[in-house]
Amino acid sequence: MKKLIIATSLITALVGCQSNNDTLEQAQNFASCTFPDAPTVEAPGWICDVVPTDVAIGATGYAKKSAAGMSVMRKIAMSDARVNLASAFESDVSNLFQSATDGATSTSAGEGVTLVTENVQEAFEDITKSVVSKRLTNSRVLVSQTSPAGGLYVLVGMDQAAYDANMNKIIDEVGGEDSTLWNQFNDEKAAADLAAVFDSLKK
User: Dihedrals φ, ψ of 61, to 5°?
Assistant: First the structure.
């Protein structure tokens, strides 16, 4: 009987932890997190990269306490968060592209397929990094928090509509006719396969 009670309690606790991550408001109350610059003090879950499920993508930025004042700290924290957001977005795009190209070549035979795919993936990642750093838009500060040590944390993110719009824009630019990615191909079929991959990535 005691074992049953303990097991039930554990399940309840786990369900409780999961439900705390559902929204931005609930993520504020996620208890298993402390401030990195004040590790003995509990912090909102988003500071520990617990992104609320009603946010399509998010990233945290930080600025240490500065005599320059809160407005300067906010700019620094927002810049840091947007760099981190761009990195996360690059990773999402790259992973989607990798999955799509894997699917497109999974039924192909021949030794050259894997090599071509690796070359294309590498070129895609390089171009994506450049494009994302210049073109990512419509992210916004969702919440900010001052730590007990005086530092400032911000969560920058996008809703699903902004995420999808950015994804389509990046795919269009990376896969456009002027993109250097097409230099990886010397036959029409491979280029046509890549064009189909880009179409499949659009939201």
Answer: -125, 160
Q: What percent of the chain has pLDDT over 90?
A: 38
Domains of the chain: 49-201 (3.10.129)
Q: Are 35 and 43 in contact (CB under 8 A)?
A: yes
What is the Cα–Cα distance from 18 to 35, expressed in whole angstroms? 21
Q: Judge whether 46 and 27 are in contact, CB under 8 Å.
A: yes
Question: Is the pLDDT confidence value at 119 over 90?
Answer: no
**pLDDT at residue 36 tops 60:** yes
Q: Is the pLDDT of residue 3 over 50?
A: no
Neighbours of 107 (CB within 10 A): 7
- Alpha carbons 18 and 79: distance in angstroms, whole number: 30
Average pLDDT over residues 22-37: 70
Question: Do 172 and 195 form a contact (C-beta atoms < 8 A)?
Answer: no
